[in-house]
Amino acid sequence: MKQKDKKVVKRLKENLNNTEVLENDYYDELQGDSKSKSKRTSEKSRLSLKKNLILKKGRIVEVKSNYLNIVRIGDIDYPCSISGRLKQYLFKTKLLTAVGDWVEVDFTNEPDYRIEELLPRHNTLCRFSGDSFQKEIIVASNVDYLVITASWLMPMLKPGLIDRYLCIANINDLNPIICINKIDLCKDISEAELALSYYKKLDIPVVFTSTITFEGIQELKDMLTNKDSVFSGQSGTGKTSLINCLEPNLNLAVSEVSSFNEKGVHTTSQAQLIKWSFGGNLVDTPGLKTVNLHKNQKNLVPSVFPGFKDYTAQCYFRSCTHDHENDCAVKAAVSEGIIPVERYESYLRIMESL
Ligand SMILES: Nc1nc2c(ncn2[C@@H]2O[C@H](COP(=O)(O)OP(=O)(O)O)[C@@H](O)[C@H]2O)c(=O)[nH]1
Ligand SMILES: [Mg+2]
Ligand SMILES: [Zn+2]
Question: What pTM value is reported for the model?
Fold first, then answer.
């Protein structure tokens, strides 16, 4: 154990003097990414679960703080605290729980509702704190779709940005949907089809929409029905308009709230799970503009870049970066015209930026 970690463990032990936790458990929590951490937490917490609790399964729809979570059980939202037992396993994460988490709530001391168990997360959508620590922050968990929102014009379609979001979707285990909005501004639809053909060939769902002519709105709604989705994309592409179009009654404060208010004071702008009337949920995440690729994820990009997966296995070097290496299946596919050179250049730009 590193000296620095030893100090942290000592301090944590002092804070938790009533609880029995193995030193290894502390060390565990200092390691690994949020996803594996949450899995371990869930496993360990189950081992020490108290008896005779009245547990009901629910889903976190809002995280107000580490002390107050809103949990939806059936159709009712309950304010819940987190049991001390659970906290001890989660101490190293900035926020213990995330919107979208499935949890078990104890009703023994009603109306003092307490989260006693965190069920394993299927996936987590993470971003990295802006400060120099670049700490991983879970924006939401158990999300089905990342709706990558771009506009045909104003702002102009940037396939390079779509590539970046597709990498993020792959890394986070989210299913992508590419939504090209403002299609009313496209004079010739075959141009748009051509621009997106690479992704369509990869079986990534692409939908062309307009919140003015309503083209594609029903198609998008059908895709999102009974699923949990998060919209992400450059500002001005029409995310708020699309959401209000899908759910006119919502009239969202779809919050592109920056994390600083006018006075420059930091406001917590947490995610929220909002029910669609047609089934499923919208994950409204004010901070999602900052979802980004982290430099520690650079080694993943050669395999998660859209369309590269099948080639990566055929490269001579197992950790081929498809750049300077000989015998590279990706570069071969580019020279044969199977992978468009624009996509390959986009890949190189992403790699260079990390
Ligand atoms: N032409 C056109 N403009 C749109 C469409 N959807 C949204 N807009 C406009 O694009 C601008 C940005 O929309 P907004 O929903 O705020 O984008 P957001 O920043 O991604 O949430 C607004 O002026 C909208 O009126 C569309 O389908 N076609
Ligand atoms: Mg908006
Ligand atoms: Zn290669």
Answer: 0.83
Q: Minimal CA–CA distance to 198: which of 70, 321, 60, 334?
A: 334
Query: What domains are defined for the chain?
Result: 3-121 (2.40.50.140), 126-290 (3.40.50.300), 295-353 (1.10.40.50)
Sort strands 69-73 and 55-63 into parallel, antiparallel or unpaired. Answer: antiparallel
167 φ, ψ (degrees, to nearest 5): -60, -45
Task: Kindly report the protein residue whose alpha carbon is nearest to atom 28 of ligand 1.
Answer: 182
Distance CA 283, CA 271 (A): 7
User: Span 30-58, mean pLDDT?
Assistant: 69
Strands (DSSP E) contained in the chain are 55-63, 69-73, 76-82, 102-106, 113-118, 124-128, 136-141, 145-151, 175-181, 206-208, 227-232, 272-275, 280-284
Widest CA span in the chain: 69
Please state the φ and ψ torsions of residue 8, each to the nearest 5 degrees: -60, -45
Q: Is the CB of 239 under 6 A from ligand 1?
A: yes
Structure tokens at 268: 């917590």
Supply 193's token pair. 């089809």
Q: pLDDT tens for residues 248-298?
A: 887 655 444 333 433 333 344 568 899 999 999 999 876 555 567 888 899
Of all protein residues, the one whose alpha carbon is nearest to atom 24 of ligand 1 is: 238
| Helix orientation angle between 239-246 and 217-224, rounded to the nearest 10 degrees | 80
Q: Sign of dihedral through CA atoms 70, 72, 75, 76?
A: negative
d(CA 42, CA 90) in angstroms, rounded, equals 10
DSSP 286: G
Distance (Å, whole) CA 69 – CA 102: 12
Q: With a 6 A CB cut-off, is 16 part of the ligand 1 pocket?
A: no
